[in-house]
Structure to design on (782 residues):
């Protein structure tokens, strides 16, 4: 099938107004804020060597922080700030999405603007600055009629660099909840949808190039005093600004926002929930690719309305507990704890996505291994592999303690490769995920955990505080509760990890609903 | 004795930190009469440029008093002072992003003169410095020759009808023919417009040919002040050395070109 007739391309194009619009909005706002701060600072600092050095040093340090980390840092920072303003001044603000992304990107844009403005202004022939003074200009007149116009080409080069950086880096604002062209890239990488990844990259690059060229047009128009060029460049920028502002005015506030973390299953479940809401006549948008901690805080702060989390994850990561409880007790305890955050535990979906020890079915049968207790007898001669965090997680400690496991060797691996490695015999056992589609694909066996060393990881729907008594939402979601069994979820995940036209989360979600809808 | 339009009294100016300060102008007293053309001659580092800049407060004196048109300039707003003092910069210093017309009209514009009056004034000034208004008004400075640029520089200095014109080595970077023509033209304007001009130059010949009186600066001190005749009587070794070149050139030229010398 050729790329152009691939239905994934049409699906990607369908998201473009939303993704590009949001990308445009956050980039332009960040750039405007960055310029509003950097230009006056640079003008103030140009004749003050100490201030100039300090400014450039700070801006350079900011630049060395990887874009993703900078964006991620702004989320907890603003969250803390919001709680301070709430307790001191009685108001708070959303630390999710637009605001942290804009602030981090604005900070990111400062270095080229600061550096080029200072360099440009200091590079002007001192004789011309003296001439400006000599013909009777005030400092302000000299700045605006002589120095800034003469430094304009250098300043504009800085602004263009900043614009390209900001537009490129804005793709990384997806994990903190700001929709951007990065949504294509993050979703595409997780679900192996290379059409999406490519589409996102090309769209972001094309957008950056267009803005850069419009700025170049504006600059050359100003420099050569050609009205047409200046007008064209200015009109292009103005059109972008208008496009950025228009949807913000028209946006409907009644839409439900569904969150999803950064792995395939989450994309599928978010698409399933969106599909159900649409079917009930409700508006829904998806904020996918959110970090585990970001998504919980975002729900607690009413920035998203609903998402699927796992009992064990909340128990260990969110509430920092270590002891393992039986399923029913754990769920009751979580319900109470979530209630303290005004979050509703709406119900479980019916499957678990837990860590589990996995080995090829044939090998397990041959060795007579059905549970981890059986495995413990053979462990000394076997090797095990896990993802990058497994061996430092509480589950591993609990397993070793409960069963006295000691393996011959243990290795860390990229999760995608683990399953193939165990299927081909490179390792004997892996710590996989129970709902992973590759378990079925490679005909692997999930070993029982008779001592319940690993806590339950029931998938469950959580609702934001403001949706606690939302009847329509409850009605739309209740058909999902208890309906998705582990085999269906595995197959759905397997389908979503394929690299073909039917593997988009939306298509897989539709398949999953057909499968479970009648139950 | 005519009234002094510019008057320096015991003026000193130092640059740099206290310990390693360089005295650029050292206790100079000098009166420039209304209508006079004064040249200040000296080598680089002699303090001649500093002396000139003190007159429109591009630089402020450390000691002593500078009076312009009877007022102590420390009491005058520097921006106002500069707007009513013409200043011609070394090699023009025209604003490269502005047209010839905009360069010339800048000071009237700063003074709030209506655009139509400025346009008329620009044409008048271009005619005065012998440039064709229609051909040059809208050009950018980089499209002009060095001599044309400096003509525009002179026009810019005269735009707000100043009584005083300060010139910082105005013709130094020009070829000898252009330089001579421009010097003559400016001297004619000086007389026609009843200007008071202070010009600095490192070229004694130029000073002798154009100025009424000449001040000789050396290492921050004013060594001599007077008309060419008075100067030629000076026994100051540095002044004698400065006069040696023009004298020898005049003699040589007289010998080489009989009848071509000054009559």
């Amino acid at each position: 099938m050729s790329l152009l007739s691939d239905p994934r391309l049409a699906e990607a194009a369908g998201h473009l107004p939303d993704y590009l619009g949001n990308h445009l909005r956050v980039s332009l706002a960040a750039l405007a804020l960055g310029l509003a701060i950097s230009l006056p600072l640079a003008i103030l600092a140009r004749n003050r060597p100490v201030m100039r050095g300090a400014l450039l040093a700070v801006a350079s340090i900011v630049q060395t922080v990887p874009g993703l980390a900078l964006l991620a840092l702004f989320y907890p920072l603003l969250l803390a700030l919001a709680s301070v303003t709430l307790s001191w001044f009685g108001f708070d603000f959303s630390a999710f999405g637009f605001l942290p992304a804009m602030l981090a990107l604005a900070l990111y844009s400062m270095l080229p603007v600061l550096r080029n403005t200072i360099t440009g202004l200091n590079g002007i022939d001192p004789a011309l600055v003296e001439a400006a003074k000599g013909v009777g200009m005030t400092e302000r007149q000299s700045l605006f009629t002589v120095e800034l116009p003469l430094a304009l080409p250098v300043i504009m080069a800085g602004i263009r660099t900043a614009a390209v950086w900001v537009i490129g880096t804005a793709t990384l604002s997806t994990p903190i909840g700001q929709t951007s062209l990065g949504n294509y890239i993050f979703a595409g990488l997780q679900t192996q949808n290379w059409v999406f990844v490519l589409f996102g990259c090309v769209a972001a690059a094309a957008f950056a190039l267009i803005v850069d060229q419009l700025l170049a047009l504006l600059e050359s128009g100003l420099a050569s005093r050609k009205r047409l060029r200046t007008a064209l460049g200015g009109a292009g920028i103005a059109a972008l600004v208008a496009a950025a502002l228009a949807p913000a005015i028209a946006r409907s506030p009644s839409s439900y926002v569904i969150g999803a973390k950064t792995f395939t299953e989450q994309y599928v479940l978010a698409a399933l929930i969106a599909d159900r809401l649409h079917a009930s006549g409700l508006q829904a948008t998806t904020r996918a690719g959110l970090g585990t901690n970001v998504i919980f805080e975002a729900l607690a702060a009413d920035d998203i309305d609903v998402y699927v989390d796992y009992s064990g994850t909340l128990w260990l990561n969110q509430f920092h507990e270590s002891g393992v409880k039986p399923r029913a007790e754990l769920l009751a305890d979580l319900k109470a704890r979530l209630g303290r955050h005004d979050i509703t535990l709406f119900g479980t979906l019916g499957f678990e996505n837990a860590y589990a020890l996995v080995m090829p079915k044939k090998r397990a049968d041959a060795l007579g291994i059905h549970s981890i207790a059986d495995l413990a007898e053979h462990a000394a001669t076997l090797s095990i592999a896990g993802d990058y965090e497994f061996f430092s997680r509480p589950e591993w400690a609990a397993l070793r303690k409960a069963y006295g496991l000691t393996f011959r060797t243990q290795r860390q691996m990229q999760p995608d490769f683990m399953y193939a490695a165990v299927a081909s015999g490179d390792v004997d056992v892996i710590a996989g995920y129970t709902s992973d589609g590759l378990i079925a694909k490679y005909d692997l066996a999930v070993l029982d955990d008779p001592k319940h060393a690993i806590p339950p990881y029931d998938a469950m729907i959580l609702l934001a505080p403001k949706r606690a008594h939302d009847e329509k939402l409850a009605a739309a979601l209740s058909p999902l509760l208890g309906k998705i069994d582990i085999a269906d979820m595995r197959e759905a995940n397997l389908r979503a990890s394929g690299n073909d036209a039917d593997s988009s989360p939306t298509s897989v979600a539709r398949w999953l609903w057909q499968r479970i809808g009648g139950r | 004795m005519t009234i002094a339009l510019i008057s320096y009294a015991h003026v000193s100016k130092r640059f740099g930190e206290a310990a390693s300060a360089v005295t650029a102008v050292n206790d100079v007293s000098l009166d420039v009469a209304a209508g006079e053309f004064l040249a200040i001659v000296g080598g680089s580092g002699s303090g001649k440029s500093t002396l000139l800049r003190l007159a429109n407060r591009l630089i402020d004196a450390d000691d002593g008093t500078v009076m312009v048109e009877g007022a102590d300039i420390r009491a005058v707003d520097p921006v106002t002072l500069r707007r009513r003092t013409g200043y011609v910069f070394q090699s023009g210093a025209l604003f490269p992003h502005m047209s010839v017309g905009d360069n010339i009209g800048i000071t009237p514009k700063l003074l709030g003169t209506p655009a139509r009056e400025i346009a008329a004034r620009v044409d008048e000034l271009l005619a005065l410095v012998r440039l064709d208004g229609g051909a040059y008004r809208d050009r950018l400075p980089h499209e002009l020759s060095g001599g044309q640029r400096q003509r525009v520089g002179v026009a810019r200095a005269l735009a707000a009808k100043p009584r005083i014109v300060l010139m910082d080595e105005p013709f130094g970077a020009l070829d000898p023919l252009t330089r001579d023509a421009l010097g003559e033209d400016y001297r004619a304007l000086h007389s026609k417009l009843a200007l008071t001009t202070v010009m600095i130059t490192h070229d004694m010949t130029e000073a002798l040919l154009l100025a009424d009186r000449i001040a000789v600066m050396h290492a921050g001190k004013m060594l001599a002040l007077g008309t060419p005749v008075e100067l030629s009587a000076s026994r100051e070794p540095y002044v004698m050395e400065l006069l040696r070149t023009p004298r020898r050139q005049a003699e040589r030229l007289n010998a080489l070109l009989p009848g071509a010398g000054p009559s």
